[in-house]
User: Fold FAD-binding protein from Cyclobacterium jeungdonense.
Amino acid sequence: MSVVSRFLSWKKGNTIVSWELLRLVIQVVFNRDNVPKHIEILDDTLTNHCSRQKRSRWVKTINFLVTPRFVRRLVENRLNKNMSKHERVVLSLDKELTQEDIFSKDKMVRQKWGNWYGNHCSEPLRFFVPGNGEYKHFSPKNADCTRYDYQGLEEVVELVKLAEKNDKKIRAVGSGHALTAVAQCEDYLVCTQHMNMTQRPAEDCIKEEYRVGFEVTVTYGNKESKERHFLFETGGGTKIRHLIQALTYHGFALINQGGSSIQSISGAIATSTHGSGIGIGPVSAFVKSITLVGKGGKVFRVEPANGVTDPELFAKDKMAVKHEITLIQDDDKFNAVMVGIGSVGIIFSMILEAQPEYRLMEERIMRNWEDVKAEMKQDMYRYINAHRHFEVLINPYRDMEAATEEERKRKCLVTTRNYSQQQHEKHHAGRERNYISSFISGIAISGRLSPWVFNKNHLSIPRMTNNSIKRLVDHTGDEGGGFEDLARNVLDQGLGELKFYGYAIEFGFPLDRVFEAVDLIIRVCEESQQYDHLLAAPFSLRFVKQCPAHLSMMQQSDMCMIELVSVKGVTGSLPLFMRLERELLAAGAIPHWGLSVEPWYREMVEKAFPRFNDWEKEQEFFGGATFRNAFLERIKQS
Assistant:
């Protein structure tokens, strides 16, 4: 393509995007009924004419235009005309959502901490920020990352002793990603943001066969093969996005990850967070060793019976002796602390299994759910294990206003990901996924505006959901040719500010009960649809390998995790979530420790997690009453 042709193409793309943005603004001010329709048009325009770089420039321009308060008030007045009071939009700037809470070490009282959804918060008696890692300007190149933070470890030990001396509970918090009160504590709260100093390949006291990599057997694509994996040591307070930076710096990558990297690694492990791939366990399954501070300020290094640490070398290690770190290599104890829901102590560091950096090819195709269901039923495991990653997004509703019978069938999006050996250098707008989301998520008023769009146009949610699925389609046979990149970029589905306006509940079902669960969800959703209560997003089926941790949702078998998503502020979504949760639990669902809206009680927990009583014994050994918060106490006493 000549220079002139490239310039004309660039000019045409900018002109088209400019025109559609102007039209959208005009509709917002003068004809608000057409806003949802024009958002759909803008989405298509961005998909075909706007690259990532162009979107970034447009985001900055739009944020500049909406910064003046009078502009936002003008838009508000137009949008809120004839709207119910509880559905009116307040277009405050959401800049604070892009800025993380950074807590000062010096301010130990009158602090407030809350989870990302805002339904749980703590104003603890005392607030501590131990550790010596760099958080605000984190870099794996920092020389301190090669050292272990023994000074920080001693800080945590003294904090636990202080809490017990004053007869107070103590608890560590990370990113507050859980929807439940699993992290809440009103006595002493420990922010882990600076417990991230250590970022290095694990070598100290490690058995010789693990020091320079070790061979593992994996089963992807229904074929067994060998891979060489490595051990990596990281701080317990490390954010997943920082961990990814550190791994990348050393040439490694996570074996799998969830859709967001804003969590802390300890929080993800403590609740058995997962990705999708029936041959890959949850994040907790990658943990090979955990160093924690338990009751009495005792420090333990906990591993499976045949752990990665050499007991003889560890017994001679001067720092381990000096800091009185006890090595425990026991399956039951390790399986208890692996998913400890924050109650077995404060995780100070851990050793993870990682693999050399790798690339993935992602393909997404829109299909009729009943067709996919019939194919999956033929040989469930073989079907979902045909790829390294496999997941399905299902529209809970059918678009009954569609023009043809084919379009009225229930739609779903099938996503597959496999190893890629060839780097794709071709770049154009069609190869960027999450088109409208990647654009809107950077706009300062987007989160406030999103629920208004769904509330104003709630009868069109089935159609809008189909359209959103259609826009994610990207497979080898279309213009995009699939999405190929480094694994960390393919697996992270982060949506900027929009992440904080979506919320979800999640449940596990054995593979032989997946379709029963899906049918139940669809039935409940369609019943509520008659009363104009709808979810504002498709729900997902993700598949995870069995994990031996006592409190993992995957403890009993390979599992299908079903995640139901909506947007905060959409009328009817929360009561629909509550209704769905009750029905799914009655049908034998295993709830996610961090994604639930109904109260938890002992009978439900013991039914869902058969090893809960065994876990309680180990919790008493490691954490005891010192680390039992109100959430756990209510379960124990109910």
